[in-house]
Amino acid sequence: MNAAILITGRMPPNVIPQLQEEFSVHVLPETAAEAQALLQEVGPRIRGLTTNAVQGLPMTLLDALPALEVVASSGIGTDALNLEAARARNIRVATTPDVLTADVADAGIALMLATARNLCQADRNVRAGNWLRGLGLGHRVTGKRLGILGLGRIGQAVARRAAGFDMTIGYHQRNPNPEVPYRYYETPRQLAADSDFLMVIVPGGTATEGMVDGAVLDALGPEGTLINIGRGSTVDEPELVRALEAGRIRGAGLDVFAEEPAVPEPLLAMDNVVLQPHYASATVETRLEMGQLVVDNIRAHFAGRELLTPV
Ligand code: NAP
Ligand code: 8YV
Fold it and tell me: Which domain holds residue 88?
């Protein structure tokens, strides 16, 4: 009998048709009652699971799947995957590194440009027939200082792109990287103090929770702009709102939020803020590559091979 796979999370379109060729595929319904009914029926037989980095692997789901062997997540973040609980049950977990790096880095640069150059406000002006009315001047990006919080795969891709804008690049993470030509800062606060734009791209989770706090925002200062493409939990969101309201920083470009899809109400009315619905990896090309890795990891597991991209 084909192994039973449970599909949770919104999957790229190439996932389900491929898995259906080899496995017995069940899609978790969105409504709680229907999901519960399906889990009662097939939960004990499910051996593989697909999810994504946002949906993660809730403990309630894990508890309902006693025969689970492998989880393939579409995304790189592991903060919602309950890795310890999965490891304790010897469940193998795979994510989708690298294939999303370029598009997420592009999105970070796009947010930086859109925020600095009032792109969304200008668009709203034209659509409303207001042309230049109430639209202030933007600010230059070229030649400015970019601080990258988390110079990993995506952070380095951001840095390479920013070099094309003649930006001076600095970074902070726990370990200095001797291979890169950028200046290392010991703390997020020191990095922010020496940055015009602070780009956040560290992983989420307890280790980075609230890392960008009021002191970091004050170090960034009234001519500084925060860009967050990592996780909402890394930024103290109420403090960010207060800093924006008081002009303690100039603006913010945000792809991620602490309690998605909720966005703090005051941000919605701010023209110096650009908001995205956790959209940085959402291109056709990247999502198909993420989907293919999900499929290939599930296939590898059930063929008795190593996972391609294990966590
Ligand atoms: P990565 O290659 O693992 O890079 C993460 C970087 O963060 C590393 O350089 C690491 O350096 C640093 N870091 C980790 N923990 C830290 C801590 N406690 N304090 C300071 N620095 C820390 O990961 P990646 O592929 O670049 O992805 C990064 C994150 O981006 C993901 O985990 C995910 O949350 C987020 N993401 C968001 C989207 C989106 O749609 N917005 C899409 C993809 C990814 P050290 O180990 O030296 O500290
Ligand atoms: C996705 C992400 O938006 O990879 C991550 O960590 O947050 C994003 O790429 C997410 O996986 C939803 O599919």
Answer: 4-97+285-302
